[in-house]
Amino acid sequence: MSLQDIKSPIKTGMPQHQAVQPGSEEKMTPHPRSSMENYKAAGKLEDKTVLITGGDSGIGKATAIGCAKEGADVAIVYLFEEDDARETKALIEQEGRLCHLIKGDLAEESFCKKVVAETVETFGKVNVLINNAAQQYPVEKFEDLDMAQMRHTFETNIFPMFYLTQAALKYMKEGDCIINTASVTAYKGNETLVDYSSTKGAIVAFTRSLSQQLANRKIRVNAVAPGPIWTPLIPSSFGAMQVAKFGKDTPMGRPGQPDEVAPCFIFLASDDASYMTGQVLHPNGGTIVNS
């Protein structure tokens, strides 16, 4: 990976848009850096089982592959992106680990329970739960925010964290952990993503509160709050010209890549973070959030 690769993850003047969320990596130009090909593993998750939602692409994909490189078997939940999911599975299996794909809508509580049960049936355990899946729908004027959309955003972004965590805790033991994906918008807001930002704020509070409840069970709960990251959610959320400028307003002047975020999840999942709970890491390109 060259310095130029890092500085210019999106070529200037590359407007693009995808009509359906959460979007596909295959349709992005250029593709996100999510294969973790340069990641140096050290066996930090040997023989653990990781369950990750939205693990087919973007941050979830990079995290899933990184966990496999560290020695974990991985169960991935995805909505409908078959090609992305199969590619991620293949890359995990190249690391000599097992990958189980689970397709469905996390907004349904019964499906969330099925996800955990199927993971335990497949691997015999779940040691790390990574609540990552989310969607966002920009609205320029708050009065135009449709209540059906607002409900859908909450039902996709925060409710499944309750469903999945409740189900997973039946199997989790001392030393296991939960990691939630928040966002820089939870701290600084976003003028066109009011409902999305609100769910991300809820995720921060969920993380901090749950960490206190589970501390005596020695189950850690932390979060990662990424800034603008080049994932399929971006071209499927914004107009083509907005995408072309995406991330350039950060102090580092560029969007991040999934492989620059995944190590945060891997660290929090490992024993290296054994004295961290209720905390949030901020891979956001230099934005100060005073958290």
Can you describe what's shown?
This protein has helices spanning 3-7, 58-69, 82-94, 109-123, 147-157, 159-168, 185-188, 194-214, 240-244, 262-269; strands at residues 49-53, 73-78, 99-103, 128-131, 177-181, 220-224, 280-281. The model is unreliable at 1-9 (pLDDT under 50). The protein has one domain: NAD(P)-binding Rossmann-like Domain (Rossmann fold, 3-Layer(aba) Sandwich), CATH 3.40.50.720. With 291 residues, it is an alpha/beta fold. It has ten helices and seven strands. A seven-stranded parallel beta sheet has the order 3-2-1-4-5-6-7, sandwiched between helices.
Number of helices: 10
Radius of gyration: 18 Å
What structural class do helix, strand and pairing data support?
Answer: alpha/beta
Average pLDDT figure: 90
Largest sheet: 7 strands, parallel
Order of helices and strands: HEHEHEHEHHEHHEHHE
CATH topology: Rossmann fold
- Helicity range of the residues? 25-40%
Reading side by side through the largest sheet, how are the strands ordered? Answer: 3-2-1-4-5-6-7
CATH architecture tag:
3-Layer(aba) Sandwich
Quickly name the level 1 CATH class: Alpha Beta
Low-pLDDT regions: 1-9
The shape, in one word, is globular
How many E-type strands? 7
**Count of separate structural domains:** 1
**Fourth-tier CATH superfamily name:** NAD(P)-binding Rossmann-like Domain
Percentage beta strand: 5-15%
What's the N-to-C terminus distance?
32 Å
